[in-house]
Amino acid sequence: MKRIALIFLIFALAISAAGCKLEGDIEPGSSPLGAYGDRGDKVETVPPRKEIAMVFYEAMDFHPLTATNSENHELLKLVYSPLVRLNGSLKPEYVLAEKVEIKGVDVTVTLKKGLKFSDGSAVTAADLDQSIRTVRENPTSPYYSRLTNIRKHSVKDDRTLAITLYEADIDFINCLDLPIVKKGKDVGCGPYKFATEGGKRVLKINKHYFETPMIETIHLKAPKAEKERQEMFAVGLLDIYFDSAETEQKFAGGKGFSTQIYPGDNLLYLGINCRDGLLQSAKFRAFLNQVTAREKLVQGVLLGQAEAAIYPYQPNWYKAEQSVNGSALSDSEKADAIKELGLTMEENTLLDEEGEPLSFCLLACEENELHTSAAQAVAEGLKIAGIAIEIEAVPRVKYQARLAAGEFDLYLGEMKTGRTLNTALYAAESNVNFSGTVFESLQQAAADYKSGSLLLSEYCKVFDQYTPIIPLAYRGGTLYASADIGEFKSTGSWAVYGDITKLIIKETEKIA
Question: Taking CA 507 as the corner, what is the angle to CA 487 and CA 210, rounded to the nearest 5 degrees?
Answer without folding.
Answer: 55
